[in-house]
Amino acid sequence: MLNGISESGSDVVGSFISQLQALQNRVKELEAENSKLSSQISKCCCHKTEEMQNGSDVESFKQGVESQRKNAGGDKTRKKKTIERNPGYDLKIMTHHSKRYVALKVMYFGQRFYGFASEAQMDPTVESEIFKALEKTRLLVGDKKESQYSRCGRTDKGVSSVGQVIALFLRSNLKETDGNHKISGELIPEAQIEGEIDYVRVLNRVLPSDIRILGWSPVSIDFSARFSCLAREYKYFFWRGNLNLSAMENAGKKFLGEHDFRNFCKMDAANVHNYRRRITQFEISSSNMSFEGGQLCAIKVKGSAFLWHQVRCMVAVLFMIGQGLESVDVIDILLDIEKTPRKPQYAMAPETPLILQSCEFEDVKFICSSDSGQALRIHLENEGRAYLLQSAIFQEAALSCLPLAKDQSLLNDGTIKKVTSHISLLSRPTEPSYEERRGKLNSRR
Fold first, then answer.
1. Up-side HSE of residue 57: CA atoms within 13 Å toward CB?
2. One of 75, 156, 178, 210 is an active-site residue; which one?
3. For residue 52, what pLDDT is reported?
4. Is the model's pTM score more than 0.85?
5. How many CB atoms are closer than 10 A to CB 41?
6. Has residue 42 got a pLDDT over 90?
7. Do 201 and 318 lie in a common domain?
8. 177 and 127 in one domain?
9. Is 363 left (phi over 0), alpha (psi -120 to 50) or beta?
């Protein structure tokens, strides 16, 4: 009896093993078939993308922009990031294409984005939208690490740019050959441009309306958008109102040169240990734009590098000086960390008027074809007109408002706030010093 049960159990086990081997063989067959089909799809998609690049009709571009405007929306609802892949697109398959190292010049209107970088857990970011476009156009040849991706600036939530620069490997139309006329290395020499993909036109067709590629440039593989940058320039727009521009300019000149800016930034003692930065240019200028008799002005600050929220903190103190609430000498006092080791508590200037104006590099010249440039200008002009129409609506609404109460005042940034007595910066509560922050961090270890 026991022998019969044992023999029956052995038959069952043998049957299971046989079925398992058959399933494993079938899985291998399906994987091979899937790889073959994926390769065919990739080739078809690449041909389709290259065909799209040959049509440089401005009207089709405008239609694409209109479609993007409808699809982009203005949803600012916080949500966890989700990674989307285009069907039939495999980064591993795309790595066999010729590639070249490229720098892209990017502009974006930052109002709806949670900053530029995509490391944070919030969407949308400018960077995430750019990578979606790179995937959609089949320009990526690997993930961020494989493509040696780098960015020049990491602008915060709401901040815009007309001169951000990123660098990475992208697919190329050109072929690098060895002496036997075989494709080798897949790296395209920096000098070759003729016959290359029009990266500006291809990407701008699929990017949302508030992001645009302004130009591209071939760069050497040791180029870094962050560490190869020689200088960065920021602009901060504001309405003049009753501000004393002369006092603000005199105060701003004190920033020139190399100083410790720990009292003009948001301190990150865990990661940043050197707060000395060099400012090479500071100026305040008036523009030809006005609203209700108010003059639009801009503060321009240029330096080799900047700390977290540095420009917005500098501007906040300058506004206090322009309003006559602080003296020009307060800049000297805050830059002297021996006398003022702790930063007084004060609110930063709003983020929306701040733009990253430009990033400077040695021997990097950005390219934009005439067709792409024309389409780009048409798009930007149309976007500008759309915002002017919105401004006209807000102006009509303002004319319909009731007069302000006597105990309220309109600030230069357009917000309404009850009149309160100003507390001198040097009399305010202070934040912990760098040494105190480091001591607290070390005590937790």
1. 6
2. 156
3. 45
4. no
5. 15
6. no
7. no
8. yes
9. left
* Lowest pLDDT segment from 263-272, 276-285, 407-416: 407-416
- Distance, in Å, from the CA atom of 147 to the CA atom of 166, rounded to the nearest integer, reads 12
Q: Is 55 helix (H, G, I), strand (E, B) or coil?
A: coil
Helices (H), 308-369: 310-322, 330-335
Residue 363 lies in a domain: no
Beta bridge partners of 177: 183
Cα atoms in the Cβ-side hemisphere of radius 13 Å centred on 32: 6
Other CB atoms within a 10 A radius of the CB of residue 254 amount to 17
Q: Is residue 43 part of a domain?
A: yes
Asked whether residue 7 is domain-assigned, the answer is no
Mean pLDDT within 202-222: 96
| Final residue belonging to a domain, choices 182, 211, 228 | 228
On whether both 39 and 153 belong to a single domain, the answer is yes
156 part of the active site: yes
SS3 105: strand
d(CA 309, CA 155): 9
* Same domain assignment for residues 184 and 47: yes
From 174, 202, 228, give the residue that closes a domain.
Answer: 228
Residue 376's domain comprises 369-401
Give 165-209 pLDDT, tens digit per residue: 999 999 999 876 333 333 334 566 666 788 899 999 999 999 999
Residues linked to residue 323 through DSSP beta bridges, in sequence order: none
Tokens 């074809």 appear where?
369
Provide mean pLDDT across the span 114-135.
90
